[in-house]
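Batch manifest, entry 17 of 40.
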Amino acid sequence: MFFNRTIRNFQLMDRPVNRYFENRHLHSFGSELTNWNWQHANYSTPETDVLELDEQYLLEIALPGVTLDDVELKIEENLLTMVAKRTPSLFEERAQYLQKELPCYLVREFFFEQEIIQDQIEARLDRGILFISIPKMEIATRIPVSVGTMDMHLPGLKTRKETVRSGKEVTIK
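Output type: structure tokens
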């Protein structure tokens, strides 16, 4: 019993230290967070699911305790920056806190290698999850290929028939 309690106390002490070092260099898709103003010392990285579909990217970002007014999204070229402020709820008049979370910022950047359509990005916050739909720009148009001869496509071109020494008939354009 004492051993488990001691281990638990050390684990509780490790969490803030580990969180500090894990979040010092926020990475997303291998890119470092560079454009955010680091005046806010208390920040962390929200848990995020990133899905890539044929026509779009879908992001699901966990933002517990964040209201719609406290979420800010910025897009520059193919770099999406999300900053959200989480403020703890106030129950001071009804209860005494055993542990109280400080207000903090949740920050995440996403860089997309494929061009995206910026003016069609949609975002909604539902029960602490921010859903962002980012449509991809169509890079190339697929051209269907059909079976046929060049005669169909070149109306002014006439073909002539000639006989080669082997005795076979050959068509030359």
